[in-house]
From TrEMBL:
Compositional bias ranges of the Low complexity kind: 32-45, 251-269, 355-365
Residue spans of biased composition, Polar residues class: 1-14, 300-310, 408-419
Residue ranges for the DNA-binding region feature of this UniProt entry: 184-243
Family matches, as CDD domains: homeodomain
Superkingdom classification of source: Eukaryota
UniProt similarity note: Belongs to the CUT homeobox family.
UniProtKB keywords: Coiled coil, DNA-binding, Homeobox, Nucleus, Repeat, Transcription, Transcription regulation
Pfam families the record matches: CUT, Homeodomain
PROSITE patterns cross-referenced by the UniProt entry: CUT (PS51042), HOMEOBOX_1 (PS00027), HOMEOBOX_2 (PS50071)
Protein name: One cut domain family member
UniProt subcellular location: Nucleus
Source organism (scientific name): Chelydra serpentina (Snapping turtle)
Length: 474
DNA sequence: TCCAAGTCAATATG
DNA sequence: CATATTGACTTGGA
């Protein structure tokens, strides 16, 4: 196998900020992203005759694999070093809102897992990094913005002519009638901590709940069905993302040093599936950990501790994940311990102080673990299902290995490769952070993996019914 | 239809 | 002020 690196030429493309032809179809006030200045002098390569420039999308299509993690890392550096905000950067360079930028920078997905659309921002970032005047331009924008802002408030002694007058004084005198006319603000649902906990618990038992289950959850939690559905979609996808970043970080530390030794072969064993912590290797068993009193872990949560029941509920995180066959039973109805909160009445404020353990209330404490089910009829046992689940195989696409080259620790910026045009992409992404990845093996990881496994299982089952040689890549 | 991926935009936090 | 989080919406695939 030889990996060819012919990508080089593409690189050059990536470096040119061409005036995009943007096909902005939306009528938003959106600005065209790139500033009109597309200098890009460079001695230009582009042997292509006639072609003017490629649109970003075309660029994305031909772009070689980029190191998303490295890119975001550099972007963050440049931004903070120069006091440039995400909002400005996002709106000006990427055409995204602040929240999206934050998310992207904090949790970049690996290139090969991104869709064409998802790659676009990374290509733009790379382009921006290659632009020698990037910072300067952004600074200018910032100044202009500020100026405009100042001017605005100055001119009008007391604010005025905002674009959107009106609609300010919301008189909600009689809140009862839902006026059909104007839709009000739409109050953005905010799930209470208990609700999230309950949902997470449900997720661990069933990442892909049936419509029926969803209904039940919605009813029990007193939420809209769509909210529950959305929550599951979001949660699944966010968990997946977490796994990606772990994958990236874990993968990066491989080589040490000096020798070039590109080999990576061993890696396969490592990150491949992982889904299993099986492997035996595992070391450290005892999860004690206990880092700080509170778990910050988002996506995991306490999880069930199974103490008693058979059912197998979810896997325990504390221990090694059983990799055998864990079946996903189909308990259709379980009920979380939330009854308490459904008092309804409309009132909704059940604020829960985090981790309060009011003496006496059965609810909270129990809620956490529990193996609910039972309760009423319906023996859940029923199906054992256990279809033999995969073995630990890991199918991986061998394909490109993506090994990074060693890196330069140089802190600063810029790389400037400036002078040379030689930049091959590789140089662009040159360093893959060597940064060290600490060990992240907390049980957090395990929990996530466990959840992911569940997810995988679900997909496998689904696929099983349709026979298809799917290529999974967990 | 369901799902995943990408975003937005309101809110939370710092 | 900035950045981080997150419910909901949009798109595109099957």
């Amino acid at each position: 196998m030889s990996s060819s690196e012919s990508v080089k030429s593409l690189t050059e493309l990536v470096q040119q900020p061409c005036p995009a032809i943007e096909t902005s179809k939306d009528g938003k006030p959106q600005e065209s992203s790139e500033p009109p200045v597309s200098e890009s002098q460079s001695t230009t390569p582009l042997p292509l005759s006639g072609q003017s420039a490629l649109s970003i999308q075309e660029l994305v299509a031909v772009s070689p694999e980029l190191d998303t993690y490295g890119i975001t890392k550099r972007v963050k550096e440049v931004l903070t070093d120069n006091n440039l905000g995400q909002r400005l950067f996002g709106e000006t360079i990427l055409g995204l809102t602040q929240g999206s930028v934050s998310d992207l920078l904090a949790r970049p997905k690996p290139w090969h897992k991104l869709s064409l659309k998802g790659r676009e921002p990374f290509v733009r970032m790379q382009l921006w990094l290659n632009d020698p005047n990037n910072v300067e331009k952004l600074m200018d924008m910032k100044r202009m913005e500020k100026k405009a802002y100042m001017k605005r408030r100055h001119s009008s002694v007391s604010d005025s002519q905002p674009c959107e007058p009106s609609s300010v004084g919301i008189d909600y005198s009689q809140g009862a009638s839902p006026q059909p006319q104007h839709q009000l603000k739409k109050p953005r649902v905010v799930l209470a901590p208990e609700e999230k906990e309950a949902l997470k618990r449900a997720y661990q038992q069933k990442p892909y709940p049936s419509p029926k289950t969803i209904e039940e959850l919605a009813t029990q939690l007193n939420l809209k069905t769509s909210t529950v559905i959305n929550w599951f979609h979001n949660y699944r996808s966010r968990i997946r993302r977490e796994l990606f970043i772990e994958e990236i970080q874990a993968g990066s530390q491989s080589q040490a040093g000096s020798s070039d030794s590109p080999s990576a072969r061993s890696s396969r064993a490592v990150h491949s599936s992982e889904g299993d912590s099986c492997d035996g290797v595992d070391t450290e068993g005892p999860p004690e950990g206990k880092q700080s009193g509170l778990e910050a872990d988002e996506y995991s949560n306490a999880t069930t501790k199974s103490q008693g029941g058979q059912a197998e509920s979810a896997f325990e995180v504390g221990e090694e994940v059983p990799q055998d066959a864990r079946s996903s039973e189909k308990t259709e109805s379980f009920h979380l311990g939330m009854e308490s909160l459904e008092d309804t009445d409309d009132e909704g404020r059940l604020k829960a102080p985090r981790q309060s353990s009011p003496p006496g209330s059965q609810s909270s404490g129990e809620t956490l673990e529990t193996m609910p089910n039972s309760a009423t009829e319906e023996d859940a046992s029923t199906s054992a299902a256990s279809t033999s689940v995969l073995t630990g195989e890991s199918s991986f696409k061998s394909k490109e290995s993506s090994e990074k080259m060693l890196s330069v620790p140089s802190t600063s910026s810029t790389l400037a490769a400036g002078s040379q045009k030689a930049n091959s992409i590789q140089s662009l992404f040159s360093f893959s952070e060597a940064a060290s990845s600490k060990n992240t093996r907390d049980n957090t990881l395990r929990k996530k993996k466990a959840a992911n496994l569940n997810n995988i299982i679900h997909r496998l089952e689904k696929a099983a019914s349709r026979e298809e040689p799917v290529e999974w890549e967990f």
